[in-house]
Amino acid sequence: MEHKLTTEGKFTYLEKGEGTPIIILHGLMGGLSNFDAVTTFFSEKGYKVVIPELPVYTMPLVKTGVKSFAKYLNEFIKMKGYEEVILLGNSMGGHVGLYHTKMHPEYVKGLVITGSSGLYESAMGESYPKRGDYDYIKKKAEGVFYDPKCATKEIVDEVYDTVNDRNKLLKTLAIAKSAIRHNMAQDLPEMNTPTCIIWGRQDGVTPPEVAEDFDKLLPDSNLYWIDECGHAAMMEKPEEFNTILLDWLKQRGF
Length: 254
Known about the structure:
Blueprint: E1 6-8, E2 11-16, E3 20-25, H1 36-43, E4 47-52, H2 66-80, E5 85-90, H3 92-103, E6 108-114, H4 123-127, H5 134-142, H6 153-163, H7 166-181, E7 195-200, H8 208-217, E8 221-226, H9 233-236, H10 238-251
Parallel strand pairs: 3-4, 3-5, 5-6, 6-7, 7-8
Antiparallel strand pairs: 1-2, 2-4
Helix pairs in contact: 1-10, 2-3, 5-6
């Protein structure tokens, strides 16, 4: 599916559908096309799905991290003139969503996290190999999923290129460090935004107990499991993911 990306000022994003905005925050792996199934489904169910490209490799190194991405997201929301959004984040994107929600709860009607960093020390560092040959990186990328076939050539190539590009590698490591620095354990009990936690039962990057900790610490959360599923539920099991999320949105009246 070909995507027409829109550029406005410093923002580049994908937008589809009409209705309450669901802003999808991507992780470090793979492009916006990873979310095709989610984008198509929700844009046909009365939501406007918006996926901004986070400035993962374009910010100055000293600014590269969760906090700056959350600030960038807030500027994007204001630029679009949205009053209330639903944030949906996978992996690092979940952490950006959490941090933004802590700083600007008034903009966030609901938060959805899947395989999110923010509580677990090695979530980012572990899943991103520092270097290595193509086969090693392919194995690492496959380990992110329950079904290794989900690690398409496109995804493996992207990780390989990142690891072999010094600038990108330094930025990736800076993000991993900032994720550890911005651990959310102290903040979560103060965050009253309704939160939907959807987790792969076989997530090896952010293991299931991380989801249980999020659920325990957040005052208003619901936790859902997807079986035979790894770190990126919205890519690996999109139908189940979409059904769970749509039910949750309806229950909450969003």
